[in-house]
Amino acid sequence: MSERRITGRLDFGALRRAIEWGDPDSMLEFYADDAGVRVLDGDAVSFEVEGKAEVAKYLRAVHARPAIHRVNNEAVAEGRIRFEESCEYPDGARTVVETRLEIREGKISRQVDLVVGRDGSSGEPERPAERDMNRSAPNGESSRDAPERA
Questions:
Q1: pTM over 0.85
Q2: Residue 139 burial class via C-beta count within 10 angstroms: exposed 0-12, middle 13-18, buried 19 and up
Q3: Residue 44 β-bridge partners
Q4: Mean pLDDT across the chain
Q5: Would you call 77 helix, strand, or coil by DSSP?
Q6: Per residue in 17-48, pLDDT tens?
Q7: Closest CA to 97 of 113, 121, 81
Q8: Is the Cβ–Cβ distance between 11 and 29 less than 8 Å?
Q9: DSSP-assigned letters across all residues of 120-149
């Protein structure tokens, strides 16, 4: 299966890489200025954000905690993308989120994240830790082999 899948000029392969590398600044490039994100935990709305600046805060908060993020089970169609993101944390906690994206003019206009599973400890690590630069990336490379980002 090809990594590069484009819908409405949005390159899903590039979005996947940004998510899996935990790079919120690269992810943000895929969002429209008026994008909105809604997060559901079970049947309840946990929160909603509107506008690219608020989406940026959300993405940075999600990726501030060290974790391994993997994107699976994607379905890419014209104007819509669905995938599951599994997150594994150093304390053993795991979370699975089903994400649905609406694409308009090549940008994410709407995102709905549904938390579909949690496992293990849910607390923060005892002390802040930097992202483990020696962990294996989903493609098998070490993250220290990744190109530098400005």
A1: no
A2: exposed
A3: 41
A4: 80
A5: strand
A6: 999 999 999 999 999 999 999 999 877 778 89
A7: 113
A8: no
A9: S--SPPSS-----TTSBPTTS-BGGGSPP-
Mean pLDDT of 109-138: 58
CA–CA dist 142, 150 (Å, integer): 19
Residue carrying the six token digits 């992810």: 27
**CA distances in angstroms from 75 to 81, 122, 141, listed in the order given:** 6, 29, 25
What domains lie within the chain, and their CATH numbers? 6-121 (3.10.450.50)
- If one counts every other C-beta atom within 10 angstroms of the C-beta of residue 59, the result is 22
Per-residue model confidence as pLDDT tens digits over 55-74: 999 999 999 999 999 999 99
The DSSP result for 14-64, as a single string, is HHHHHHHTT-HHHHHTTEEEEEEEEEEETTEEEEEEESHHHHHHHHHHHTT
Closest by alpha carbon to 59, among 29, 102, 90?
A: 29
pLDDT tens string 72-90: 999 999 899 999 999 999 9
Can you read off the two tokens belonging to residue 119? 């496992």
The structure tokens 């669905």 sit at 82
